[in-house]
Amino acid sequence: MFSATIPAFLAQTHFSRLRFRLLTWRAPEFRRMQYLEHLLTVDTAVKEVKLFALGLPLLQRHQEQYQRFFIEDATLARRRSLVSMVWGFVASAGYYFAYGWIIWQTVAGAITIGGMTFYLTLFRQSQSVVQTLFSNLAQLYEGGLFLGNLFDFLALEPQMRSGRNLPVPRIIHQGIEFRNVSFRYPDREEWALRSINLHIAPGEKIALVGANGAGKTTLIKLLTRLYDPTEGQTLLDGVDLRDYDLEQLRQRIGVIFQDFVRYQATARENIGFGQIDDLANEPRIRSAAERGGVDEVLRHLPDGYETMLGRWFEHGAELSGGQWQKIALGRAFMRDSEILVLDEPTAALDAEREYEIFQRFRDLTAGRIAVLISHRFSTVRMADRIVVLEHGQITEMGTHQELLARGGTYARLFHMQAEGYRQVTLC
Hints:
Order of helices and strands: HHHHHEEEHEEHEHHHHEHHEHEEHH
Number of strands: 10
CATH superfamily of the largest domain: P-loop containing nucleotide triphosphate hydrolases
Oligomer: single chain
Number of domains: 2
Radius of gyration: 33 Å
Strand content: 5-15%
CATH topology of the largest domain: Rossmann fold
Structural class: alpha/beta
Distance between the termini: 94 Å
CATH architecture of the largest domain: 3-Layer(aba) Sandwich
Strand order of the largest sheet: 6-7-8-3-9-10
CATH class of the largest domain: Alpha Beta
């Protein structure tokens, strides 16, 4: 009886392995299917989905993927059920064979009636125990396969580590230095940055200029320690960033990226997330909103700072691109940071509001290091120095007037943009 149960157990473990491999193998495709669901249901994509008539094609792709998964799952389930039924029948046949053999031995006089009763009861109870045992073992085996993935994930070590966990200075005395910094992204052969040498003095305003892919945002990612240099060092007051306490370092840097997050939360939370410890600090949130230029927008919302932003949840209020960008600016100003990084901070703002913010640019960044990325030369000319990046390398550096006098890449790009404005004006 025990031997008859083993094949069913082995069959179950075999199909558990097959199911685990199937789910693991198609995980990337399952994520793509989830992405299609996201595109078809979120408000941020609805305009293009409707205007480009993408609804039915995307839905068809989703259904095709879903149908393929369904067929694979159904095929595996049928095979598993069939094999389980066959081996279950074998196990039952073994049990009833033993049952019949005991009765036969009793009729032949080899076993007494009392012995027959004892053996039949023993077999009946043993069969239940053995089947339950092997069934539980098969479930434990299948669960262990999936838990293996979880344990592998939990065993991953963070790539960003602090060396000596030094405290980050409250006041910067020597500034920031990129010393012979080169960097390339994981699994990439080309260099994103190559031999960067740049010193930013305390309180200095630096503008980074260059074509898309020149390495501007990558430089910011190294400054905020989202990555570490492949070669060279990034120093703050003469100390490698890797030696500072990582959490404290990021607390000292206020950042607004070009692809900032639009949190489906209240306006208060959208701004307060910039300094989560001060989420209940009303004066600080209002001050950050004012400096980011979003206070006027919030005054016109139904519930002011308590208005839910975005359309994902009930009673949410959607904002324009420029208004969302003001929210992100306010979030950056929530931090009492020594370093402020602005990656295309006014790209979605109208000309009047952009002019107003940058008229206050020096006041807003007084006493702080400010790193500004922008394609608008009317903006970058306000910086103390302008750094031109091309193909991951610094090719020019100086003030607006110095770079114009040099007649290099910056001057060419500036005159191209100015000429475009003149042509628009003439039209």
